[in-house]
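seq:
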Amino acid sequence: MFVAGDKVLIVACADDPRAVGRTGRIVDQVPPGSLTAGRWTVAGIGLLIGPVLCHGHELRKTGPLIRTPQV
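struct:
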């Protein structure tokens, strides 16, 4: 299971095959539901690739939660 801010490696992505092999971060604050068909939102992949939706089995966690300072 992932949490918002986790760094992940995209090993497969039916949404956008260009994202495969790249790293990004999980955006979702809660586990995905029916709106996204159970897929996680991954952003920060690259300049020409927007956020993508990937199933959990298409992702591998590569780093810890990235904490952002609360203002």
